[in-house]
Amino acid sequence: KYNVVTRPQEYTYCIIPSHDSHSVCQNADMRRAIYYAISNEAIAAALGGNAIAAKSLGSPVRADYSKAWENDSTYINTCDPTKTAELLKSAGYNGEELVISYENAKLFPKIAEIMQNMLVSAGINCKLNPVETAQARAMKSDSAHWDIYLGGFGGSFLIGGWFKYLNYTDDGTGYCVGGYKDETLQKLFSTAYTMEGHTEENMTALLDYAISDDNAYIDALCIACSNVVYSKAFSSLYYVNGSWFYPGSCTYNFQ
Fold this sequence. Notes:
- By secondary structure, this protein is α+β, with helices and mostly antiparallel strands.
- Helices cover 30% and strands 23% of the residues.
- It has 8 helices and 10 strands.
- It has helices at 28-36, 40-46, 81-91, 108-121, 133-141, 158-162, 183-192, 200-210; strands at residues 2-17, 51-53, 98-103, 126-131, 148-153, 219-231, 234-236, 239-240, 244-245, 251-252.
- The protein has a 6-stranded mixed sheet with strand order 2-6-1-5-3-4. A two-stranded antiparallel sheet has the order 7-10.
- Strand 3 (98-103), helix 4 (108-121) and strand 4 form a beta-alpha-beta unit.
- It is globular, with a radius of gyration of 19 Å.
């Protein structure tokens, strides 16, 4: 009588390490060690149908997302404990405790707990620091008080989500989230953010630079999902912007 379909939404959960002088995460090898210790597939499985694993930096339903990005083996779509161990050694990690900060809402607490377990299992000490929604924006902009920020981004176009994290003009501090300033990154972002420059080639160049071994500025974890229960009278489903279900625009079987 009824069918159920799980479909990814636009919202992507991600992490950004601190570049502040207090944090061991200012070292790129340390940032990559953290990323390789995390299994996106395991996070999605633990969330029980509320998310799918991120395979690149954003949701596949975004209008400017390229499936070709998923073909590249990156720390976003790869969990490699051996690589983590190697990178921790090269980063000179000595067991310092990392602080994971996040808004105490949505799926953030559950994701934070799962991620903490993965990091501790990989030999990375960390503790959780949830904050209330009213404090979340100020906390995001102050990387001196955390080592890993668990956040996210939504919207119909991926470049709009990247605006929050790959550009230093968003929150008025003059720095990207994480407390760093990279003029090459800003130039790549500014090019892809224009109407004429918003091409797959320019989006790919921006992505490749942001997640390169030398930078490793951000990691995507999972994509929020919705579960739609619908009558078998529907012969096809209709979604707006690739994710929002519109029953009135679907095709029906009449018997």
